[in-house]
Structure formats: structure tokens, C-alpha cells
Specification:
10 strands; 9 helices; 8-stranded mixed β-sheet; alpha/beta; two-stranded antiparallel ribbon
Length: about 280
């Protein structure tokens, strides 16, 4: 994959691109605290695509949102459309992993006239919250946000401890963890620090209710292929995740044994599940 950068209204977005003009246009959205390198193992297995994988704002080598702004799915929806506009893509498909699949779900539901197809890996829709937890969540988020200013980012003397930290946090093999870490670090005095915006670790202030998430998923009009790993993640257990996939008007579900980052650790199997879906 080759480097690219785009200027959008908020700032400069960096990323990686594979394939070329003439291929099916696919915007690939990575997961929370990952970056565009998330799609490096998968890209060689996907032929006939113009695959564009941006570092979403606050991640990798892309700009951070200004002070006072919020890293919400709603804001990310407009970022995705801004990136497509900068690419001069009127219609395109989406490939998302985890948080990226949640954002892609929202884009597909909110702007159906521009989205041709969607592949959602390890997430669909958004993380819901029961209505009776609304005030409690808001208070927790406000408290965490006000306390963030005094926190210092960890500094690593070299990238190796950061790689081990990612391996432990995500049950990743060393090669995949290194891909994410090398793109997710920046040089600072004394060594290296994470380039991601610390505000990404803050609790979401307001979440949709379960009924709203259901309506969001049911509103995805394009053909959609959902790929889940087995065993399921705690945030989207069975039978809830399969029930949610059945809400898709034109959806299909594929389950593959593996871990949360199966698109990185089992790229050939995930590519086979995608097949010629985009083309």
C-alpha cells in the first residue's frame, strides 16, 4: 500500500491506498485506536479495487480535532463524506472493522444515495445504552473529560514495549501489532509516544438506545455483508449480534473462527469471505 494525504475541511488526512483508478471504489475504515495499517495484510488479497484506507482523525498520522470538539460517530460520518468528496467519489462502497464498521453503518444509513455496498467486520450499527443509564453515562463522561488535561502520555524508549502492549491488549501476533504500532507512534523527547489523540479514550457522552440502533441497522439500504469472528466479542454477544444482522434489508452474515483482528491475522480467509462482493 502507498501513502497518500488529503485536505478536508477539518485538516489533513493521511492514509494508505492500494489498487488504482478503474477498480471498485472502497473506503476502508479502521477500528478504535488502530490506523490505516489495519488493512495492510488484507489489501494484497483483494483484487480489482481502488482501496483507500485513511487514518481517521485522532489516529495514525491524521489531524486531531480542535479543543472542544467531540470524537463521535456523527462527526465521523461527515469526515467520511469529506474524504469521499476530496477523492471526487460520488458513489462508493465501505469496508469497516470494529469502530470503523460502526461508523460505516451510520454513513450507509445516513447517506444511502452515495453508498453502493458495505462489508462490516466485527461490528454493525453502534454500541447502545439503556435509557435509564443516560444521566449516569453523561456524568461519567464529563468527569473524565475534565480530568484529562493533567494526564501525561507514556513515553517508550523504543517501539518494542509499545508492540508488546498492543499484543497484550488485543491478543495480536507480533507482526500485526508492529504494523499498527509503527504507524501509531511519534518521536518525542526521550523516545516515542502514541500519536493518537488521548481524547479517544474518553467515554462517549451519549449513546443510542437499543431501539435506535435497531432502526439504524434496518435503515441500511445497500447490500451488506457482515463478517463476525467466533468466539464473539463481549460488546456484541450472541444471540444479539446475529439478531442485529437479520435486521438488514439486504444483508448476509458470515462467521469465521478467529480473533477480533481476524482481517489482519487471517487475511486470506476474510478476503475469501468478501470474494467479489464489491465488484
Amino acid at each position: 500500500m502507498r501513502e497518500f494525504s488529503l485536505r478536508i475541511p477539518g485538516g489533513t488526512v493521511a492514509g494508505l491506498r492500494a489498487g488504482g483508478e478503474g477498480g471498485a471504489r472502497v473506503l476502508a475504515l479502521h477500528g478504535w485506536l488502530d490506523n490505516a495499517a489495519s488493512f495492510v495484510p488484507l489489501a494484497p488479497h483483494l483484487e480489482g479495487l481502488d482501496l483507500v484506507a485513511p487514518d481517521l482523525p485522532g489516529h495514525g498520522r491524521s489531524f486531531h480535532l480542535p479543543q472542544g470538539a467531540d470524537y463521535s460517530f456523527a462527526a465521523a460520518l461527515h469526515t467520511v463524506l469529506d474524504i469521499a468528496d476530496a477523492l471526487e467519489w460520488e458513489a462508493f462502497s465501505l469496508l469497516g472493522h470494529s469502530m470503523g464498521a460502526g461508523i460505516a453503518s451510520m454513513v450507509a444509513a445516513g447517506c444511502p444515495e452515495r453508498i453502493e455496498r458495505l462489508v462490516a467486520i466485527e461490528a454493525l450499527g453502534a454500541l447502545p445504552e439503556e435509557p435509564q443509564r443516560t444521566a449516569r453515562r453523561l456524568r461519567e463522561a464529563v468527569q473524565a473529560t475534565r480530568a484529562l488535561g493533567g494526564k501525561q502520555l507514556r513515553v517508550f524508549a523504543d517501539p518494542a514495549p509499545a508492540v508488546r502492549a498492543r499484543m497484550a491488549a488485543n491478543a495480536l501476533g507480533e507482526q500485526c501489532a508492529r504494523l499498527l504500532v509503527e504507524r501509531g507512534l511519534r518521536r518525542v523527547d526521550g523516545g516515542f509516544s502514541w500519536s493518537s489523540d488521548p481524547r479517544l479514550t474518553l467515554p462517549t457522552m451519549v449513546r443510542m438506545t437499543p431501539a435506535q440502533v435497531d432502526d439504524l441497522v434496518a435503515g441500511i439500504a445497500c447490500r451488506t455483508r457482515v463478517i463476525y469472528a467466533d468466539p464473539p466479542q463481549p460488546y456484541l454477544p450472541e444471540p444479539e449480534r446475529s439478531r442485529r444482522a437479520r435486521l438488514l434489508p439486504r444483508g448476509e452474515l458470515i462467521v469465521i473462527p478467529g480473533g477480533h483482528h481476524l482481517h489482519m491475522e487471517q487475511p486470506a480467509e476474510v478476503a475469501a469471505a468478501i470474494g467479489d462482493f464489491f465488484s
